[in-house]
Structure formats: structure tokens, C-alpha cells
Amino acid sequence: MQKTLLSGVKPTGEAHIGNYFGAMRQFVDRQDDYRQFIFIANYHALTSVSDGALLQNLTLELAMDYLAIGIDPKKTTLFLQSDVPEVTELAWIFNTITTVPYLSRAHAFKDAEAKNKEVNVGLFDYPILMAADILMYGADIVPVGLDQKQHIEIARDTAQKFNRIFGETFKIPEAMILEEVKTVPGTDGRKMSKSYGNVIGLFASDEEIRKAVMSIPTDSKGVDEPKDPSVCKVFAIHELFPGENTEALRARYLSGGIGYKEVKDLLVEKIIAFVSPMRARREEIARNPEAVLKILREGGEVARAHAQRMMDDVRGKVGLTFK
Length: 323
Ligand code: AMP
Ligand code: TRP
Hints:
By secondary structure, the chain is mostly helical.
């Protein structure tokens, strides 16, 4: 039987090349080989977006992004997380078998606490809702960026704990993290992230791409000096994009004779060449938002039917229903 692949992205800002190379591209590459569920994690987004109109807007934008990169709704069930409200019920049931000290060890929560942010209960419980997303559809593999690794481990632990207490119910999912990508750096050298304002937008204009690339910090080595490609953030982004010249570029770094200005100009050209066809497709898709909403609605119905079957079983096992 075909294995199930599932993943989601939060509609909290413009999709960027970190999202694309870390996660989204794999959804396109694998849709022929897996039964695939891809969704827009709008319940998760509520932990950081408290503006209804903005959330609607970001949601529609992300749906268009998915379609523009090549998600085919005939092959992939593309849907809104909130069109399957059963996931919040499953998350509640998982809450009752999860301890507070266990969730207190999650990185995202610890980071927010360390920064003295006011942590809402939704943010604290974020990994459990994510476990519900993953386990609800019987996912075998979950392609994500390295920053989500711990969340997949929490989903695995939760499945094992539930199965131990109530009997075999959930499949144990595996994370799929691309070794060669791991974490894409942003224009300030930190992880590229919607919340740091350091992104190169996947659908940015030529001018925005140029500006973002030019702002990446480099060391002060002159043109002729040898340079270390393994510590250069510009080189790290070069490596993501296809093109046979990466090896030649590495050699020029090591021998000296290339300046950062030239490296950045080459990168701008490479990014523009790569994103322009997707950008054009996206413009086409954006002309018909109704068609996009229809795809989401239909995907939601398919996903919900799976979820309802799963919840019948779960409700019975935990004793909420009588059979
Ligand atoms: P998010 O935008 O946080 O919903 O992330 C969506 C997907 O993109 C997740 O699988 C993340 O792990 C992945 N991702 C986000 N930022 C990066 C990055 N800088 N490098 C690699 N993957 C990333
Ligand atoms: N937490 C993920 C992120 O920030 C988004 C997400 C929510 C997700 N539920 C998921 C990813 C289930 C994979 C599977 O990127």
C-alpha cells in the first residue's frame, strides 16, 4: 500500500526560500509516490496572529503559493487545518495524557520563556496540536525543516503513549529532514524566519531579491584573498539552487580571485532564474481566488472524512462513546 506523507506550513507571513528548500519542495517532488496530505496550519497561526482579516489574507496567499510551486490538487489533498475541527478534539484527548513538565522541555516554549515573552497556552500546547495533525491521518513520513525535528519526536512519543494506554491505534511517524538543506540562513546570518524579517521571499520581485541578497553580511576579505565557502552565508544559499557552477564557485573561493560583490550578483541571477516561472504561475493563479478556495474546500472534505473515521475509533477507545 502507498505510504502516507503529511506536512503543513503556518500562514504567518510571506513564504521564503527556507520554507521552500527545507520543506515545501519535497511536497511537490513526492506527490506521485505517496498518498499526500498538505495543509495550511491556521489554528497554529492563531498562536501568533490576532487579526482575522490578516489571517484570511495570509491563508489565501499560502494556498496560492502551494499551487504555484506545483502542488497538484488531483494528487495531493490540499486543505485548511481548521476545516477538520476534529484535530482540536484529538489534541484535547492528547492533552489529558501529556504532562506539563514534558511539554515544558520543548524548544519553542523554552526559547519564548527565555526571551521573557508572554507565552499563551496555545503556544505551550502547540506540539500537541501538531501531534494531532500528524497522527490523525496516519502519516508515515513528515517532511519538515530541522527546526521541527523535536515536534515530530513529540508526535511519536504521544502516539506510543496513547497506544500503550488505550491499545494499538496510531502509526509512529518518521521525520524527513533533508541532510543537505537543514537550516537555510537568512539575510542576517541567523535562521531564515518569517519572524526575524530576514527572508528572501519565494515570490519576491527582482528588486526585492537583489536588495535582500546585497544585505547578507560577509567578512572583509579582498577580491584576491582565498575565502572559506563553508562559513559563507552567500555560498550556503548558492548551494541550494540547481546549477553546475557551484563547484566552480567553490574552487574560486578557495583559490581567491572572486569578490563578494560578484558572488552576490551571481546569486541574484540564479534566484531570479529559478523563481520567475513560479512567480508567473502564481500571478495566473491569483487571478482566480474562488478556484483556490474551491480546491481547499474539496480537500477539506476528503481530509475530514479520514478524521471522522479515526475519531470514531478514538472516542470509543477512550470511553467517550458507547458501542
Ligand atoms: P513555518 O514557516 O514555520 O510554518 O515553516 C514551514 C516549514 O518550513 C517547516 O517544515 C519548517 O521546518 C521549514 N523551514 C522554515 N524555516 C526554515 C529554514 N530557515 N530552513 C529550512 N527549513 C525551514
Ligand atoms: N509547526 C510547523 C511549522 O512551524 C507547521 C505544522 C503544523 C506542521 N502542523 C504540522 C508541520 C504537522 C508538519 C506536520 O513549520
